[in-house]
């Protein structure tokens, strides 16, 4: 009896190993002729998992052949219909642990599970995107020259708001406090900001419109701050009524405006002496709190407020080569600097950290800097990978990094506090990303991407989900 049970087990084991070998052979064929670009690869750009399959498939095949040599001696068992039935039923059970082994070999992967089809016009240039967390995780509003379109957390279209006839949407406020965003339109020869409007983002309702003169806009608390050539004005964010006005000197021009909470800040550049200063005012009353000189000796090439709280301003001038991120406390005192020339791409501000790709020769790194005093908190290397984008991760303690190398696109999760990788990088399969895009965590398990390519010919938005199956 024991010999018969041993023989049945031997036969079942042989059939199980044969089933797993066949499965691995099919998976290897798929990686070679379906997933691999051009059906060829080098040592560092083959589909992940192929090397393990090249090792395990022939090894399991050889082991199956050895076991089959013993089975051939068990002629009586092989002829038994009952034994054959038992082997046929039990052998496929081994496919499950074999499949788990394959998932380990290939590592985590995500694929495009839903998308919007581009309209194909190529005429409505994308302007930007507002990300929202309520009422649906992953909800966002995408802006093009011809207007706004809202999408829910699964990428389905919601409300739309067309740009007024004869105008084109050209800029958005950086933030949307209380779910209200500010829009800048251009029309005629007025330039960007010849008309300003506020929109309630939950339902896409236009709250008010106002003619302006090349205004820069910022939504600060419950105040809309407009910076025009001759004045900075505070309006009620919801109703649009004027609350205060701060004049700008005749030889000066406002180059940037932003703010958070009860503080609005703007950068004035003056022709006399090629000077520039950062000004802070009370967003509710317009009362000036302080001003701080910026370290420039020539005209500003670029100035941008990266964070309003903590306050960080990126300044580049045109002649001396100043390129620095300045950090200020609540009283306007400079408390640190970051090397602006080392940063590239779009930095991510999360809490009191600024996270950015940094130049490291031919290698790619991501660094986090303190917005309190400017010191580097951590630096994580990405080798030959090109960093494409950063976003908050699925949990408050994570940062998501999208990069590409050798034709593959990856999403890597880093710990916000230490920059350490949380797990092996996730391969993003079949994604098409423009030079500009934004992404965020969507419904559980997913990420939502928004393409902002210049011609709007790629998928406007798509969702990626974990791969279940091959």
Structure description:
There is one protein chain. With 470 residues, the chain is of the alpha+beta class. 18% of the residues lie in helices and 43% in strands. Strands 26-27-28-29-1-32-31-30 form an eight-stranded mixed sheet, with no helix packed on it. It is elongated, with a radius of gyration of 29 Å. The protein starts with a helix and ends with a strand. The model has no long low-confidence stretch (mean pLDDT 88).
Give the secondary structure arrangement, pairings included.
Blueprint: H1 2-35, H2 50-71, H3 75-79, H4 81-90, H5 95-106, E1 109-115, E2 126-131, E3 140-144, E4 147-151, E5 157-162, E6 168-172, E7 180-186, E8 195-200, E9 205-211, E10 216-220, E11 223-227, E12 231-236, E13 242-247, E14 252-260, E15 263-270, E16 275-282, E17 288-293, E18 300-308, E19 311-317, E20 323-328, E21 334-339, E22 348-350, E23 353-360, E24 363-370, E25 376-381, E26 386-392, E27 398-405, E28 408-415, E29 426-429, E30 437-441, E31 447-451, E32 461-466
Parallel strand pairs: 1-29
Antiparallel strand pairs: 1-32, 2-3, 3-4, 4-5, 6-7, 7-8, 8-9, 10-11, 11-12, 12-13, 14-15, 15-16, 16-17, 18-19, 19-20, 20-21, 22-23, 23-24, 24-25, 26-27, 27-28, 28-29, 30-31, 31-32
Helix pairs in contact: 1-2, 1-4, 1-5
């Amino acid at each position: 009896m024991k010999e018969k049970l041993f023989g049945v087990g031997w036969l079942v084991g042989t059939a199980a190993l044969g089933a797993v070998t066949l499965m691995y052979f099919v998976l290897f064929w798929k990686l070679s002729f379906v997933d691999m670009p051009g059906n060829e690869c080098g040592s560092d750009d083959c589909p992940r998992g192929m090397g393990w399959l090249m090792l395990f498939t022939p090894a399991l095949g050889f082991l199956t052949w050895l076991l089959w040599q013993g089975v051939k001696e068990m002629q009586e068992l092989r002829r038994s219909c009952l034994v054959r039935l038992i082997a046929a039923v039990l052998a496929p059970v081994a496919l499950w642990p074999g499949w788990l082994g394959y998932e380990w070999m290939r590592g985590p992967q995500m694929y495009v599970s839903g998308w919007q089809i581009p309209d194909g016009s190529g005429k409505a240039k994308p302007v930007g995107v507002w990300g929202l967390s309520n009422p649906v995780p992953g909800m966002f509003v995408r802006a093009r020259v011809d207007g706004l379109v809202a999408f829910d957390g699964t990428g389905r279209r919601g409300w739309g708001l067309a740009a007024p006839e004869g105008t084109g949407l050209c800029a958005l406020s950086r933030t949307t406090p209380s779910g209200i965003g500010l829009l800048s339109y251009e029309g005629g020869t007025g330039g960007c900001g010849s008309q300003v409007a506020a929109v309630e983002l939950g339902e896409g309702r236009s709250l008010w419109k106002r003619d302006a003169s090349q205004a820069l806009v910022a939504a600060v608390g419950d105040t809309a701050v407009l910076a025009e050539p001759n004045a900075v004005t505070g309006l009620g964010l919801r109703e649009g009524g004027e609350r205060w006005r701060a004049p700008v000197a005749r030889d000066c021009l406002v180059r940037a405006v932003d703010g958070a909470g009860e503080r609005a800040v703007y950068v004035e550049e003056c022709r006399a002496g090629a000077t520039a200063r950062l000004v802070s005012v009370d967003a509710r009353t317009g009362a000036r709190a302080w001003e701080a000189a910026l370290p420039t000796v020539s005209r500003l090439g670029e100035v941008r407020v990266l964070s309003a709280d903590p306050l960080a301003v990126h300044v580049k001038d045109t002649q001396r080569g100043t390129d620095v991120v300045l950090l200020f406390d609540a009283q306007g005192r400079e408390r640190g600097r970051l090397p602006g020339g080392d940063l590239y791409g779009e930095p991510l501000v999360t809490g009191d950290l600024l996270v950015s790709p940094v130049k490291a020769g031919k290698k790619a790194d991501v660094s986090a800097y303190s917005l309190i005093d400017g010191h580097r908190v951590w630096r994580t290397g990405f080798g030959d990978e090109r960093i494409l984008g950063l976003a908050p991760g699925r949990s408050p303690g994570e940062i998501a990094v999208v990069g590409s190398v050798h034709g593959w696109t990856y999403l890597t999760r880093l710990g916000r506090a230490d920059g350490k990788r949380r797990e092996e990088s996730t391969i993003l399969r079949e994604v098409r990303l423009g030079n500009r895009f934004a992404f965020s965590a969507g419904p559980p398990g997913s990420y939502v991407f928004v393409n902002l390519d210049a011609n709007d010919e790629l998928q406007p938005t798509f969702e990626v989900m974990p791969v279940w199956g091959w």
